[in-house]
Design a protein that fits this description.
The protein has about 425 residues and is α+β, with helices and mostly antiparallel strands. Helix content is about 30%, strand content about 25%. The strands form three sheets. The chain has a six-stranded antiparallel beta sheet. Strands 1-2-3-6 form a four-stranded antiparallel beta sheet, covered by helices on one side. A four-stranded antiparallel beta sheet has the order 5-4-7-8. A hairpin with a 5-residue loop joins strand 13 and strand 14. The radius of gyration is 24 Å and the shape is elongated.
């Protein structure tokens, strides 16, 4: 995910009894391709097709000397991505991922590339015969994959992102007026099967589930359905349970304020939320103010690490965020003192990796106040304005109850905080 785009990939798995011409494997290929796509689609002058073509070429260059890239048995991936560009939402779909767009009064549109289902029809029917999990079923799936590989990235066959950059020219692409789009879901075939394979949900119901409960709930419901039909009797399929990835994006809605704790819980290795970016990064050793000293258990005025950044999205500033960190971590993790965005996760990720001390406890607090002159400067508000802001704090501690970080987020005026919890009735 980038500030203006989302990419979802699904590596094509291969039966273990079939050869592979790449020593790196599919997970490596997907990571390399995804990283390059995120970087490339940030340039509005580059079309999504051009980005995919360039990404495939760049990944080829990484392993053409070690792997047989001219073989049929090479890593491959499906692709679905969107990118905000001016007043448009660009999209690209390649192979059996699904893009679902909620166009408001114009209804819901599902953009699907199902060409893979139009080839090797006899082998596909055989592979869908259950029960799944048996040697006989595995053999039929292997036969299907063998035939599909011969038809992959060839005229009359189907197309995926692999070693041929020309596959990008075969992707389904288009643009929609951004003002028409309310929501978008990017789904791998394992995450779309409640609708297109099982018929248990409509696309509208799937979008509502994503909005109210999130991608994890969609996948959990999918797993429940799969477990209810373990051998594929009700819903014939190639695998009992398939990899599932879903990304959900609300278009045109201001990003809500996230606490330091919520940013950590995303588990993405990045503190960005959907549609966010960060800038104005600073880092330095500074004297601890009284409230920070009390939180970190040091004397007022003692040296601590202070890291700051500003989160923004297209509606403006989301929050000014400060991480106060005990000075002792400066030696083990010198990158904490660099005034730039951390490239290897959050500051707590860096501390855990370099010292082994992980955050296992936290204290959260939310308060509101009229912006002070210092708040106004940090949030780029007009001098002398009297606006209410939220202040979120989170104190992270390790297993021995030792402070690791004290996070302070100042929310820009008008930002809301959204928190979802389970309710036991």
């Amino acid at each position: 995910m980038s500030p203006t785009g989302v990419v979802v990939l699904d590596g094509l798995s291969a039966p273990k009894d079939l050869p592979m011409g790449c020593v790196h494997g599919t997970p490596w290929f997907v990571r390399q391709l995804g990283t390059r796509l995120i970087n490339l689609i940030g340039d509005d002058e580059v079309s999504l097709r051009e980005a995919l073509r360039s990404a495939i070429t760049e990944v080829n260059d990484l392993h053409r000397d070690t792997c047989a890239l001219d073989q049929e048995a090479v890593p491959a991936s499906t692709v679905v991505m969107i990118r905000e560009r001016g007043g448009l939402l660009d999209y690209l779909v390649l192979s059996d991922n699904v893009l679902v767009l909620d166009l408001g009064t114009d209804g819901i549109r599902a953009i699907v590339d199902k060409r893979v289902e139009e080839v090797a029809a006899d082998e596909m029917r055989a592979a869908l015969q259950g029960p799944t999990g048996t040697p006989e079923h595995a053999a039929r799936v292997s036969q299907l994959v063998t035939v599909q590989r011969r038809l992959r990235n060839k005229p009359g066959g189907y197309w995926v992102a692999s070693t041929d950059p020309a596959a990008a020219d075969e992707a389904i692409t288009g643009s929609v007026d951004l003002a028409r789009v309310q929501r978008a879901a990017l789904l791998t075939d394992g995450a779309s099967r409640l609708v297109d394979s099982f018929g248990a949900l409509t696309w509208a119901e799937l979008l509502t589930l994503l909005r109210t409960e999130g991608p994890a709930a969609l996948i959990a419901h999918t797993r429940e359905a799969e477990l209810a039909d373990p051998v594929g009797e009700r819903w014939p399929r190639f695998k009992r349970s398939d990899d599932a990835t879903a990304a959900y994006v609300e278009i045109g809605r201001a990003v809500p304020l996230s606490s330091a704790a919520q940013r950590l819980e995303r588990g993405t290795g990045s503190s960005w939320g959907a549609g966010e970016r960060s800038d104005s990064h600073t880092a330095a050793l500074t004297a601890a103010p009284p409230d920070v000293a009390a939180a970190l258990g040091v004397k007022t005025g003692a040296e601590v690490i202070r890291r700051t950044r500003v989160y923004r999205e297209r509606h403006g500033i989301v929050a000014h965020s400060t991480s106060w960190i005990p000075q002792e971590f400066a030696r083990a993790a010198p990158e904490l003192l660099r005034g730039e965005r951390l490239q290897s996760g959050t500051s707590l990720d860096v501390i855990a990796r370099t010292t082994g001390r992980r955050a296992v406890k936290r204290d959260d607090e939310t308060s509101a106040r009229i912006a002070t002159p210092e708040d106004r400067e940090l949030l780029e508000l007009a001098p002398g304005s009297a606006e209410a802001i939220l202040m979120l704090t989170a104190l992270f501690r390790d297993r021995e109850d030792r402070p690791l970080e004290y996070g302070v987020d100042l929310g820009a005026p008008g930002r809301t905080r959204v928190e979802t919890s389970d309710v036991a009735l």
